[in-house]
Design brief:
The chain has 494 residues and is α/β, with parallel strands linked by helices. It folds into two domains: 382 residues, Methylmalonyl-CoA mutase (TIM Barrel); 65 residues. It is built from 19 helices and nine strands.
C-alpha cells in the first residue's frame, strides 16, 4: 500500500509536512476560579511556566445566562469556573495580559455571543486593534442538548446565534476561530469513540449548512472552524481516531460542500485528556492516565492540548497539580523524542486498519442522522442522547462487573490512602462578587441600559445579526444576564 505523506490531502498522516519539528502544539491549560482576580493570577502563573495559550473556564451561571446576583445562581457562583457578569469582571480577568499577543480560548456556548462581546469590548477599551485578536470560541450549542445541558434557547434560534458569530468574525475578527465543535463532552457523557466522531461531524455538517444558507462561503468561514476531541485510555484506538478524523472532515468538506480551500479542508483540533477517566480514589494514578492520553493526542497530531490535573475528580486543581499537568506536556514535547517524526504510527498494520474502520463506522452514523433529517432533528427526537445513554450504561455495567478494570477503583484499591489537600471555594469571595455587581447596577444609567436592550430585542426579532447590538449593550453597561434575558424574550427557552 502506498501511503500518503504528512501534509497531503486528505491529511490522515497530519496537517503539515514536518508537524512538530517545525512548531509544537499549543500548550493551553484550562482554568477559572471563584473570582476574576484569582483566575488572572492563575493565568499569569501558567504563562510564566510556559503555557502559550489561555483557556477560560466559566462558572455555571455565566454559562446559562444568569448574573451572579440572580436567584438561579445561588450556590453556583464561582464553583466550576470564573463568574463574568459585566465588563469589569472581564477587565479583572485579563488585567496586565496583552490580548493582542496571547491566544485565548473560551469554553462557552449558549452565552458565546455575549462573552465574545465582552472580549471585543475590553480590547477596544484597551485601544487594541480587534483584527489582531487570536483565539477560539467553543460556540458549539448543539452538543449541549445531547451531552452537557448548558443551553438557553431552542436549537434553531441557537443555531442562528452560532452563524451570527461566523458572519461577524469573518468581517471583524479574521484571526479568531469562530467555533470549536466538541466531541469531548459527547465522550465525557458516555459515548463510544466512534459515536464521538459520528455525532460531532453530524453537528459540524449542521453548522456548515446553516452558514451556507445564510449566504456565507465555506471556503472562507471553513478556515476558522476548529474541533475539540477527547483523549481516553485506549492508546492505539485514540491515535487511530485522531487520524481518522482528519480524513473524514476533508471528505465531508470536499465531497459534500465542494470546498477547495486547503485550509478549510483541514481538521484542526484541540485535545483534552479524559476527565471522566480520572478517579477520586488514588489520585496519583491519574497522572499516569493523563500522560498516556496526552501522548496519544500528540502521536495523533493534535494542534493544541490541555492535560488534566490529578485532583480534578475532587476539586478545582491546585497550583502544584496544575504545574505538574503542564510539565507532563513539556516532558513529552522536549524529552520523549516523538516530536521528531510526523505520524510515527503511520504504516502500522493495526493503526491503519483501525483508522479505516473508524472512518467507515463514522460515515454510517452520519448517514443514519441524515436519514433522521440532520443533527437538529436528531436532537429534537433525542436520538443522540438516547444512544449516548445506552453506551454509558454498558460501560458502567462492565466496570461494576469487573469486565473493565479501573486501577484503584475495582482492582488494587489502596484503602490506607490519606485524603489529599484540595482547593476550596472561599464564600467571602462569592459574596464580594455579588455585592460588587449590585453596586455596579445601582450606579449606572438605567435608562441607557433599557434603551440598548430594546434595540437588541428588535435586532433579534427582525432576524438581524445580534453581535453589533450585544457589543453596544456591553459598552453601555448592560450585564450578561440582562442581554440573555432580552434574547429569551424573543427566542424563548428550551
Amino acid at each position: 500500500m502506498t501511503l500518503e505523506k504528512p501534509g497531503e490531502f486528505p491529511y490522515t498522516r497530519g496537517l503539515y509536512k514536518n508537524m512538530y519539528k517545525d512548531k509544537l502544539w499549543t500548550m493551553r491549560q484550562y482554568a477559572g476560579y471563584t473570582t476574576a482576580e484569582e483566575s488572572n493570577n492563575r493565568f499569569k502563573f501558567l504563562l510564566e511556566n510556559g503555557v502559550n495559550g489561555l483557556s477560560v473556564a466559566f462558572d455555571l451561571p455565566t454559562q446559562i445566562g444568569f448574573d451572579s446576583d440572580h436567584s438561579m445562581a445561588q450556590g453556583e457562583v464561582g464553583k466550576v469556573g470564573v463568574p463574568i457578569s459585566y465588563l469589569k469582571n472581564m477587565e479583572d480577568l485579563f488585567r496586565d495580559i496583552p490580548l493582542d499577543k496571547v491566544s485565548t480560548s473560551m469554553t462557552i456556548n449558549a452565552t458565546a455571543p455575549v462573552l465574545l462581546g465582552f472580549y471585543v469590548s475590553l480590547a477596544m477599551k484597551k485601544n487594541i486593534n480587534i483584527k489582531k485578536l487570536h483565539g477560539t470560541l467553543q460556540n458549539d450549542i448543539l452538543k449541549e442538548y445531547i451531552a452537557r445541558g448548558t443551553y438557553i434557547y431552542p436549537p434553531r434560534p441557537s443555531l442562528k446565534l452560532v452563524t451570527d458569530i461566523f458572519e461577524y468574525c469573518s468581517i471583524s475578527l479574521p484571526n479568531w476561530n469562530t467555533i470549536s465543535i466538541s466531541g469531548y463532552h459527547i465522550r465525557e457523557a458516555g459515548s463510544t469513540a466512534v459515536q464521538e466522531l459520528g455525532f460531532t461531524f453530524s453537528n459540524a455538517i449542521a453548522y456548515v449548512q446553516s452558514a451556507i444558507d445564510k449566504g456565507l462561503d465555506p471556503n472562507i468561514f471553513g478556515q476558522r472552524i476548529s474541533f475539540f476531541l477527547n483523549a481516553h485510555n485506549g492508546f492505539l484506538e485514540e491515535i487511530s481516531k485522531f487520524r481518522a478524523a482528519r480524513k473524514i472532515w476533508a471528505k465531508i468538506m470536499s465531497e459534500r460542500f465542494g470546498v477547495t480551500s486547503e485550509k478549510a479542508l483541514m481538521f484542526r483540533f484541540h485535545t483534552q485528556t479524559g476527565g471522566s477517566t480520572l478517579t477520586a480514589s488514588d489520585i496519583e494514578n491519574n497522572t499516569v492516565r493523563t500522560t498516556m492520553q496526552a501522548l496519544s493526542a500528540v502521536l495523533g497530531g493534535t494542534q493544541s492540548l490541555h492535560t488534566n490535573s490529578k485532583d480534578e475528580a475532587l476539586s478545582l486543581p491546585s497550583t502544584e497539580t496544575a504545574r505538574l499537568a503542564l510539565r507532563t506536556q513539556q516532558i513529552i514535547a522536549y524529552e520523549s523524542g516523538v516530536t521528531k517524526y510526523a505520524d510515527p504510527f503511520g504504516g502500522s498494520y493495526l493503526v491503519e486498519d483501525m483508522t479505516e474502520k473508524y472512518i467507515e463506522k463514522t460515515f454510517e452514523i452520519i448517514e443514519n442522522i441524515d436519514d433522521l433529517g440532520g443533527a437538529v432533528s436528531a436532537i429534537e427526537n433525542n436520538y443522540m442522547e438516547d444512544e449516548i445513554s445506552s453506551s454509558a450504561y454498558e460501560y458502567q455495567k462492565q466496570v461494576e462487573n469487573c469486565k473493565k478494570i479501573i486501577i484503584g477503583v475495582n482492582k488494587y484499591e489502596d484503602k490506607n490512602k490519606k485524603d489529599p489537600d484540595l482547593q476550596e471555594i472561599d464564600p467571602k469571595k462569592v459574596k464580594d462578587q455579588i455585592e460588587a455587581l449590585k453596586r455596579f447596577k445601582d450606579n449606572r444609567n438605567s435608562i441607557q441600559v433599557i434603551q440598548e436592550l430594546k434595540k437588541l430585542e428588535e435586532s433579534a426579532k427582525n432576524n438581524m445579526n445580534v453581535m453589533p447590538n450585544i457589543i453596544s449593550c456591553i459598552n453601555k453597561d448592560c450585564t450578561l444576564g440582562e442581554i440573555s434575558d432580552s434574547l429569551r424574550k424573543i427566542f424563548g427557552e428550551y
